[in-house]
Amino acid sequence: MSAADSALPAVQAFDVPAAPAKPAPRARPRSVVRRRGGTHAAVAYPPRSTRALAFTLVVLAHASGLYAFTRMDWEPALVAGAPLQVALITPEAPSPVVEAPPAPPEPLPVEPAPPPKPVPPKPRPKPEPKPRPPEPVVTESPTAITAAVDPEPAPAESAPAAPAESISAAPAPVVRGNPGPAEPVVTEARFDADYLNNPPPVYPPLSRRMREEGRVMLRVHVSADGSPTAVELNTSSGSGRLDNAARDAVQRWRFAPARRGDRAVDAWVLVPIVFKLEGS
Questions:
Q1: A GO molecular-function term, please (predicted)?
Q2: Alpha carbons 185 and 267: distance in angstroms, whole number
Q3: Distance in Å from the first CA to the final CA of the chain
Q4: For residue 29, what is the DSSP state?
Q5: 3-state DSSP assignment of residue 264
Q6: In this predicted model, which residue has the larger pLDDT, 11 or 74?
Q7: Does 47 or 250 have the greater pLDDT score?
Q8: What are the pLDDT digits (tens) for 160-202?
Q9: What's the chain's Rg over C-alpha atoms?
Q10: Pairing between strand 258-260 and 186-187?
């Protein structure tokens, strides 16, 4: 035996019993392992049949253990329960019932006292009548303004035109009373003075073609300065065109104001306007 062989570790040998019916397995060749230093060692491995047998035995052991575990009789462990405690509860004494006081009786309806009789008021002394201021005098103009147009050719001769109507002035009212100083003379307003130069109203062309005629009476309020402050229709001519033409003309006129003595005052005056076609 050489020195190199004595330095190698001992090789362990396995003894595997052979099966009686099978031939002995062939010996597995040893493997040569190269180690450091240039030495070589031969290692022997167990055969494959030995490993298969060992695996089979392990499986059988586990299977038998599992079978025995399933066949065991398991009894549930008894767990001691908590002790029961019983307590007697004494019922509370019932509270005394408090009876509600009886409702007071409803008061009887009281009849209202009769209202006191109204005391008749003392008669007031009648105030002394105050002297009323004199009302403005409404007078009617003694002359009428005639709106004339040129004659138109007619198939037959016409009758002569009737003269303009004259309206007399109404007499002044007589005031009865205690004798005193004489009242001033009242002079009515005038519109026919020559110095006023009031133009006559324009005859509406349509009324002239339709040969409309008529007399319009206007009620005019004349202020102290002689200007008309209100023109009202007192009597219509029957034609609205003639009434409007007369009103438009009078609103542009100037008047001689009414006078009470030497003082000019406001007054109402009636102004007649006659629309008449010449030759009709």
A1: energy transducer activity
A2: 14
A3: 192
A4: P
A5: strand
A6: 74
A7: 250
A8: 333 333 333 444 444 454 555 667 777 787 877 666 788 889 9
A9: 78
A10: antiparallel
pLDDT (tens digit, 9 = 90+) per residue, 143-171?
Answer: 555 555 554 444 333 333 333 333 334 44
CA-wise closest residue to 273 among 239, 247, 241: 247
Strands laid side by side in the 258-260 sheet:
186-187, 258-260, 263-265
Task: Give backbone dihedrals phi and psi of 68, rounded to 5 degrees, phi first.
Answer: -65, -35
Instruction: Assess contact for 250 and 231: CB atoms under 8 A.
Output: yes
Of 157, 125, 147, 267, the residue nearest 214 (C-alpha): 147
Query: What whole-number distance in Å separates Cα of residue 179 and Cα of residue 274?
Result: 44
How far is the C-alpha of 93 from the C-alpha of 57, rounded, in Å? 83
**If you write DSSP's letter for every residue of 153-179 in order, what string do you get?**
--SSPPPPPPPPP--PPPPPPPPP-S-
Which range, 10-14, 96-100, 170-174, 266-270, is most confident?
266-270
CA 91 – CA 255 distance, rounded (Å): 120
Nearest to 134 by CA among 279, 274, 260, 272: 260
State the DSSP H helix or E strand holding residue 249, giving kind and residue range, or none if neither. helix 240-250
> Which domains are seen in the chain, by residue range?
186-275 (3.30.2420.10)
Neighbouring CB atoms inside 10 A of 243's CB total 20
Distances from the Cα of 94 to the Cαs of 10, 167, 239, in angstroms? 104, 119, 110
Place of tokens 């005052």: 265
Other beta carbons within 10 angstroms of residue 164's beta carbon come to 14
- How many whole angstroms separate alpha carbon 204 and alpha carbon 36? 158
The pLDDT score that the predictor gives to residue 45 is 56
100: which 2 tokens? 């509600």
Distance CA 265, CA 259 (A): 5
